[in-house]
Amino acid sequence: MTLDFEKGCGLIPAIVQDAKNGEVLMLGYMNRESLEKTLQTGLATYWSRSRNELWCKGETSGHYQHVQEIRYDCDADTLLLKVMQDGAACHTGNRSCFYRTLEETEWKN
């Protein structure tokens, strides 16, 4: 099956999960080039939507993501990367980007 990069204007969301315990670490975006780079190096490489450039996770922080497995969903428009994470996945220093809980009062009117 061919991945559907066109649906997301050239980008595919990539959910990143700890390969050992299943914890969701972050969400990034990949284009064809970043996916190819990831496959070549074994290190998770994404497309930065804010900087409009490739970035290898951990390049500046040392918190690399060593890709163990890549899966794709039934529509072939979302990836799941199972990784061994060095240090924190989040730029805030937290292990996961999903460290906050949305309180009921924030989403119910």
Describe, in plain words, how this protein is organized in 3D.
This protein is mainly β and 109 residues long. The protein contains two helices and six strands, in the order ββαββββα. The strands form two sheets. It has a four-stranded mixed sheet with strand order 2-1-6-5. Strands 3-4 form a two-stranded antiparallel ribbon. The longest helix has 10 residues, at 32-41. It starts with 11 loop residues before the first strand and ends with a helix. The model has no long low-confidence stretch (mean pLDDT 94).
Indicate the radius of gyration in whole angstroms.
Answer: 14 Å
Per DSSP, the total helix count is 2
* Shape designation: globular
Subunit organisation of the chains: single chain
Order of helices and strands: EEHEEEEH
Q: Structural class, from secondary structure content?
A: mainly beta
Strand sequence of the main sheet, in spatial order?
Answer: 2-1-6-5
Straight-line distance between termini: 43 Å
Keywords:
34% strand; 2 helices; 109 residues; globular; two-stranded antiparallel sheet; mainly beta; four-stranded mixed sheet
Sequence-ordered SSE layout with sheet pairings:
Blueprint: E1 12-18, E2 24-30, H1 32-41, E3 45-48, E4 53-56, E5 65-72, E6 79-85, H2 104-107
Parallel strand pairs: 1-6
Antiparallel strand pairs: 1-2, 3-4, 5-6
Quick rundown:
By secondary structure, the protein is mainly beta. It has two helices and six strands.
